[in-house]
Write a structure and sequence with these properties.
CATH architecture: 3-Layer(aba) Sandwich
Shape: globular
Number of strands: 13
Number of helices: 12
Largest sheet: 7 strands, parallel
Radius of gyration: 19 Å
Distance between the termini: 48 Å
Oligomer: single chain
Bound molecules: nicotinamide-adenine-dinucleotide, thymidine-5'-diphospho-beta-D-xylose
CATH class: Alpha Beta
Order of helices and strands: EHEEHEHHEHEEHEEEHEEHEHHHH
Strand content: 15-25%
Structural class: alpha/beta
Length: 345
């Protein structure tokens, strides 16, 4: 079996390649990545010389590159995207280019190449926002209601994937997953930003009142969900993948950002003085929660990594891999940080 993974040098893509090569050593993996600011081949250093792994430095928006990359490929697992909501508010154009046009170019390539399975990685953000008062969760039947340029571009890509299934008979599956955390996550995202800021004795910027809720999932659980969908998922189907919120006591609507921050502060022996409330994100979605009953019932998947324990292990990973994030946080990151948070924090 030969897999084409797009965006394999990013956070989830790299974790997925490492996972796949560990659990499916007989398969061949081709990684197509244009190495944007978020792509980092350091993430794959342990397998870069593996005879079953190869890397193509190229853009998914380029049909020539895509046609070449698909040669001899059985399955495509499509992660490549612009993925950060705040950047999509600053500069939306790249999100439409990669997430919408890039996906369409890949779909065309997949139809031409007769790909046996096109698996599209999407997000719970396409469903919009839940309130803190309601107990509702997102599921496969929730209507789309994207509220940021990022979410809208991902919604567009999901629609294209389904349209190519209906119109051209492309064998597709989709997963809509909640917020991931774990090793190799770019420190623009909330958890690695909080951890690495504290390790640099900098404050954690918390948007608005800090009472926003996310449904956190350890990245390896996401990789395993994709694995079960590739093995047993039904063609044309969508599966929602979510995390630990089902462990919460009755009446609790999830773990708020401020609670996440307090856990990280405790893990690193810091106090609340390291919290800094900053200007809120425009259009900030109040709460996400994912109902993963379908993938559990039909394919037997459930999250296996408890939030507190694996948040602790994630903190340890960032403590032990300072070279990785110091490198990442230099250069262009500094100007992004200034633009997003102001000053020279
Ligand atoms: P990331 O930003 O860490 O990595 C994205 C990767 O895609 C990078 O390696 C980048 O170089 C590559 N890329 C970007 N544009 C490209 C292009 N035009 N051509 C080729 N490669 C390109 O993202 P991530 O957090 O790993 O997310 C991966 C996927 O999972 C995305 O599709 C995202 O929407 C989805 N997702 C992410 C989360 C999350 O919590 N991070 C949750 C649900 C879904
Ligand atoms: O500095 C910050 N302060 C803060 O309070 C940052 C960067 C974030 N936040 C808040 C905003 C969110 O409520 O933390 C929460 C998580 O923020 P992000 O890490 O930016 O994630 P989110 O916006 O929820 O989107 C993520 O989950 C779904 C990923 O970035 C997406 O790629 C994925 O699809």
């Amino acid at each position: 079996m030969k897999l084409l993974v797009t965006g394999g040098a990013g956070f989830i893509g790299a974790n997925f390649i490492l996972y796949w090569m560990k659990y499916h050593p007989e398969d061949h993996v081709v990684n197509l990545d244009s190495l944007t600011y978020a792509g980092n081949l350091e993430n794959l250093i342990t397998i870069e010389k593996h005879p079953h792994y190869s890397f193509i430095h190229g853009n998914i928006c380029d049909p020539v590159v895509v046609e070449k990359a698909m040669q001899g490929v059985n399955m495509v697992v499509h992660f490549a995207a612009e993925s950060h909501v705040d950047r999509s508010i600053m500069e939306p154009a790249a999100f439409i280019e990669t997430n919408v046009t890039g996906t369409q170019v890949l779909l065309d390539g997949a139809v031409k190449a007769g790909i046996e399975r096109f698996h599209h990685i999407s997000t719970d953000e396409v469903f919009g926002a839940l309130s803190l008062e309601e107990t509702k969760k997102f599921s496969e039947t929730t209507a789309y209601n994207p509220r940021s340029p990022y979410a809208a571009s991902k919604a567009g890509s999901d629609h294209l994937v389904r349209a190519y299934h209906t119109t051209f008979g492309l064998p597709v599956t989709i997963t809509n997953c909640s917020n991931n955390f774990g090793p190799f996550q770019f420190p623009e995202k909330f958890i690695p930003l909080a951890i690495t800021n504290l390790l640099e004795e900098k404050k954690i910027p918390v948007y608005g009142d800090g009472l926003y809720v996310r449904d956190w999932l350890y990245v390896e659980d996401h990789c395993r969900a994709i694995d079960v969908v590739l093995q047993k998922g039904k063609i044309g189907e969508t599966y929602c993948v979510g995390g630990v919120t089902e462990d919460l006591p009755a009446g609790r609507q999830g773990i708020s950002n401020i609670e996440v921050v307090k856990k990280i502060l405790r893990l690193l022996g810091k106090d609340d003085a390291m919290i800094e409330y900053v200007k809120d994100r425009p259009g900030h979605d109040r709460r996400y929660a994912v109902d993963w009953t379908k993938i559990n019932r039909e394919l037997g998947w459930k999250p296996e990594h408890n939030f507190d324990e694996w948040l602790g292990k994630t903190v340890t990973w960032y403590k032990e891999n300072v070279f990785w994030w110091k490198d990442v946080k230099s250069g262009a990151y500094t100007s992004y940080y200034k633009k997003q948070y102001g000053g020279d924090k």
